[in-house]
């Protein structure tokens, strides 16, 4: 390919490091000369006209969709459902009167997602595709497209496309809120600039994360990620990253749900990675950490400045509470990267996986 790794040993590490630049590129592309959001008028109208948004995606893009649901519901007050494409095709939920379908796909070529797009177009419903590849199948076949501007993503494990998807979804949610006349004290363009700086701080802390990977993940068979509210969605993505490239069996859980079954798996030394970036649930997630630690877990807390405690393994720079997934995911991407590296795994081309899955 024309894309080179440069001085990087792997595309994945390069793409993790590119995230601050991708945030700045997105700000540039979605900002007008008055520092207001610039977005296709047709997309704005479609978002305003619908009574419910159906997000359809696979894998990492599905995880970005879960974060997007939070934005659109909390900011624009439009109900959102998020569906795994392969399930939606065969088991379609009851639809609202005026649905808008939003396909999230890095490649724009995923067959599972396309099958849903074909079906809902036959039914006459409007579709918006959020993709990193302009001119891709999902982009061409949908009514509207929003581009991610993340640049080519080569590593099979998606990193910069995930954060780009979340950034664009935040802009879309705020734009919809504004179109509906909802007053917000949240400027996503300004807050994304702060996120870009935070990501730079994070990508400069590789050694600290590599140490955590060594101390927590070097010999383990399994690992758990726990978090509440939006931290939970990032846990799902953190676990997927770790599984994909290190082959450690990993699961993301809502902090409160672990005790309803999975806590049975906690043994002496089982790694549990807890995310604590949300004020409302800070106390609750820390009780969950105590519950697993009391059963022998090797627990680490990744928290955010302002909510940190002395015993925390890693503290993220402060970013707006809605946008914490963009910061939190960076150390989780790096944890997965170093865990895979230490186990001599093929980081950029993990077994059994393809970058773009064009079969259903
Ligand atoms: C494949 C990749 C995943 C990706 C998923 C969805 O399974 O290995 O990393 O998240 O497809 O891809 P898309 O291009 O639709 O975002």
TrEMBL record:
Annotated GO biological process: carbohydrate metabolic process; fructose 6-phosphate metabolic process; protein N-linked glycosylation; UDP-N-acetylglucosamine metabolic process
Signal peptide boundaries: none
Source organism, top-level taxon: Bacteria
Keywords: Aminotransferase, Coiled coil, Cytoplasm, Glutamine amidotransferase, Repeat, Transferase
UniProt keyword Coiled coil present: yes
Primary site of residence: cytoplasm
Cellular component terms (Gene Ontology): cytosol
Catalyzed chemical reaction(s): D-fructose 6-phosphate + L-glutamine = D-glucosamine 6-phosphate + L-glutamate
Domain SIS: 43-182, 208-350
E.C. number(s) listed in UniProt: 2.6.1.16
MF terms (GO), sorted A to Z: carbohydrate derivative binding; glutamine-fructose-6-phosphate transaminase (isomerizing) activity
Annotated compartments: Cytoplasm
Coiled coil regions in record: 195-222
Active site per UniProt: 355
Role summary: Catalyzes the first step in hexosamine metabolism, converting fructose-6P into glucosamine-6P using glutamine as a nitrogen source.
Subunit (UniProt): Homodimer.
Protein name per the record: Glutamine--fructose-6-phosphate aminotransferase [isomerizing]
Species this chain originates from: Virgibacillus oceani
Encoding gene (name): glmS
């Amino acid at each position: 390919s024309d894309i080179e790794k440069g001085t990087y040993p792997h595309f994945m590490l390069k793409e993790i490091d590119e995230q601050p630049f991708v945030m700045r590129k997105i700000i540039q592309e979605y900002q007008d000369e008055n520092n207001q959001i610039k977005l296709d008028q047709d997309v704005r109208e479609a978002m305003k006209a619908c009574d419910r948004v159906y997000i359809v995606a696979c894998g990492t893009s599905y995880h970005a969709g879960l974060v997007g649901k939070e934005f659109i519901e909390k900011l624009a007050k439009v109900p959102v459902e998020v569906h795994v494409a392969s399930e939606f095709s065969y088991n379609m939920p009851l639809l609202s009167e005026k649905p808008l379908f939003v396909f999230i796909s890095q490649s724009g070529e995923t067959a599972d997602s396309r099958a849903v797009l074909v079906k809902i177009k036959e039914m006459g419903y409007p579709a918006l595709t959020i993709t990193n590849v302009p001119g891709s199948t999902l982009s061409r076949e949908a009514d509207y497209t929003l581009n991610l501007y993340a640049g080519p993503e080569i590593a099979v494990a998606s990193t910069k496309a995930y954060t780009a998807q979340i950034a664009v979804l935040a802009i879309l949610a705020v734009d919809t809120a504004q179109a509906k006349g909802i007053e917000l004290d949240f400027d996503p363009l300004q807050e994304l600039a702060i996120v870009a700086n935070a990501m730079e701080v994070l990508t400069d802390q590789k050694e600290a994360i590599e140490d955590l990977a060594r101390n927590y993940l070097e010999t383990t068979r399994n690992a758990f990620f726990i978090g509440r509210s939006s931290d939970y969605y990032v846990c799902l993505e953190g676990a997927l990253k770790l599984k994909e490239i290190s082959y450690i069996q990993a699961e993301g859980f809502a902090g409160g749900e672990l005790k309803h079954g999975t806590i049975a798996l906690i043994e002496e030394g089982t790694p549990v990675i807890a995310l604590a970036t949300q004020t409302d649930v800070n106390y609750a997630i820390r009780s969950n950490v105590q519950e697993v630690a009391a059963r022998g877990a090797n627990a680490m807390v990744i928290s955010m400045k302002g909510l940190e405690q002395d015993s925390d393994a890693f503290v993220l720079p402060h970013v707006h509470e809605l946008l914490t997934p963009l910061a939190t995911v960076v150390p989780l991407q790096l944890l997965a990267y170093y865990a895979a590296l230490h186990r001599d795994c093929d980081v950029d081309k993990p077994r059994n996986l393809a970058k773009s899955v064009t079969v259903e």
